[in-house]
Amino acid sequence: MNSEALVDRLLLWLAPFQEHKQAQQVEERFRKLLKERRDEGSISTEAWRLAFRLAPAAELPPLAADLDAAWFRGEVTPQQLGALCRILAEVLPTEAPRWLARWPQAWHFDHTRERAAILVALKQPEGAAACSSRPGAEAPGRPGRRSRPSICGAAWGLRPSPRPSFPPRGARRCPSGPPSPRASFPPSTND
Prior knowledge:
Blueprint: H1 3-19, H2 24-40, H3 45-54, H4 60-73, H5 81-91, H6 96-102, H7 109-121, H8 125-132, H9 148-156
Helix pairs in contact: 1-2, 1-3, 2-3, 3-5, 5-6, 5-7, 7-8, 7-9, 8-9
């Protein structure tokens, strides 16, 4: 059984126990099962998420050390790093910056948005703003337009600066209308 199917099954089994507040023994068994799977080889990002979610606070640092060892064994791929950084930002924020530094930077919108969201979760607004102001952070379908407010501004309650409103095309700019061409010349005396 692959790792993602296992996680889905474990979550289904765990739900009724959590609902009735009787999940401690089941969670312990699931932690042991996930540890065995980690020892066997690489596991999915969702399995790491479940392992961090089920781990008590005292077991989080050793679990982070297991994740670090899996990285150095090559069992964690660079494609998993974004999701792992998100997980660590939620449960173990002291480890997240180190993992964020390992995540290769890409210059497209989705990557920038995810990186900025992680930095916002880590309460680093300067880093989030820097993410959204670099090349490639344009909103999809709007080349050349930055989407700084949509990436990190909304999370910090920032609003875009007000833009001047321009009259619609074809509308008169002056209430009295454009000056007549004759108004700019003095009346002719030769008539």
